[in-house]
Amino acid sequence: MKYDVVVIGASAGGLTATISAKKFYPNRSVLIIRKENVNMVPCGIPYIFGTLKSVDDDILPVEKFLEPLGVDILMDEVTEIDPRAKLVRTASGKEIAWEKLVLATGSKPAKPDFPGSELEGVYTVPKDYEYLKVLHRKVAESEKIVIVGGGFIALEVGDEMRKLGKDVTLIVRSRLLRSSFDPEFSKMVEERLREVGINIVYGQVERLVGDGKVERVKLVDGTEVPTDLVILSTGYRPNAELAVKAGLKVTRYGIWTDEYMRTSHPDIFAVGDCVEHRDFFTGKPYGLMLASTATFEARIAGANLFKLQIVRENRRTIGVYSTNVAGLTLAAAGLTEKAAKKEGFEVIVGYGKGPDKHPAKFPDTSMVTIKLIFSRDRGAILGAQIAGGKSVGEMINILALAIQKRLTASELYTLQIATHPLLTASPVGYQVVKAAEDALAKLRMGN
Which domains does the chain have, with CATH numbers? Predict the structure, then answer.
């Protein structure tokens, strides 16, 4: 069989690429190949352990999105890509010809090779429905749970298990969310997690100990933490094996692509976690594994499969993050102050703080703290970090656009905004404007 477009992978990136391909090229035949019988909503996985009632509450309804568009869906595993013949081969023996191919093969947990990691009761957090069903059951049977890691997934999973009344311990090497936030924000989330009863232990794991089943986690300094179950949440790595076998250019961070998500083969595109990204400010390659980034890249790829019709003005990637743990929303975009200084930028930092409704007596009002990082030379925004209530989730998107458009502290200071007592901070104390004002004052004073 032959298709104009074949997409491998049906998670956020693959699904979005397929939809975009069909929207922009409605007369083209499109096939999506999915390895899993059931796909999960990636960012919803941590919540199957608490807020959601079951693993089934986090299913991504692939058919609902694609069948009305006339997309064909194949349940199979691609085992080989032949770029010269323009074929994919599957585990069931099928050969499928394509004119354009999109790789959206995602990522998988990086499992550290601690001694004892093969013991029963040691798990990771993959996007695998059947695996997660087993893990969900094991969590229900456990009382003491140790999570190794201090990133978003570790914190979200730990907070959800805490809601079930579990005794949760996070083992962290340095500080929480260190890649995305500066120390003062790491401290905020640490204090909140301790307040709700999550144990945080700093140290490096030496080994997992147990007789057949994990019983303790031993740290390098000799500390031992008893446990019924261990979850290793130490990052993810790109699923790039198919690309490697096909002879495409692949780096340690994933599949190489140009700004239109074309790989080293002009008719093969790649999007999402399996792809190498390049930092918006420095151009340095790095790994970035976010569903929001995957869908952005998928829309670029899908629209430009057969001709370049959506111009990508910004050719690099901004990391934009948000999470909510223990009732505290945290969000970040761009460079941290520490990362900016490490790259050689001279920076000015502005702070703004205040309630997200006015007056602050309204129910569900939260205190919002914002930190903006600007370059000293022209005051261009380099990064943003926010902590507070739910309003933070959309506020960071505004700041990501500001970074993308290289706005200055002066432009943010003169930002024209809509406000309402029930919906936003006061126009007198709007945190973005106040943080820009703080930075401008420091620039004017030469601080």
Answer: 2-108+237-303 (3.50.50.60), 111-234 (3.50.50.60), 327-445 (3.30.390.30)
